[in-house]
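Lab notes, practical 5.
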Amino acid sequence: MPNGLLPIREVDVSARQRLVAGLLDRARTVAHSAATMLVDDRPTELAVESKTVVTDIVTDMDRRSEVMIVDRLLEGRSGDGVLGEEGDDHAGESGVRWVIDPIDGTVNYLYRLPIWAVCIGAEIDGEPAVGVVAVPELGCTYFGAVGMGAWVSGAKPESVDVILSFAAGE
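Output from the prediction step:
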């Protein structure tokens, strides 16, 4: 080409691929927001309760994080189901179900050890489709989606459009 640019290729992205990409983008953004809240708003002392046994604990920040995550994930997607570590469990009618652990590693979070994460996954019709693990104290986020691959990046979310372009070979 005279201007040195390559011609733009049409990429056939299926409705399912667009759904998966949208779910991944939403999960990454929400996980980042929850992780930021857990770091920035952490009180000096946490309210702690046992769930099933004395070593299986939940804090007020676990619950606060789950409420925030669910609220943000369901904005504009009220038909989705949710399965949350801290008790949020309801079926949806869209075929999408979010699976959430608002603080994976609560004991580490409690004792200010850096290895804890916000985990958000999405299933489509009962099949795993998207997974995000944000580890704010290490400044990284692991994320992946069926048919797209898996990556690790800094904690700031990036647009999934870039990933779709990469997956399409652009």
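Observations recorded by the TA: The helical segments are 15-40, 60-73, 106-110, 160-167. Strands lie at 48-50, 57-59, 81-84, 89-90, 96-104, 117-124, 127-135, 140-145, 149-154.
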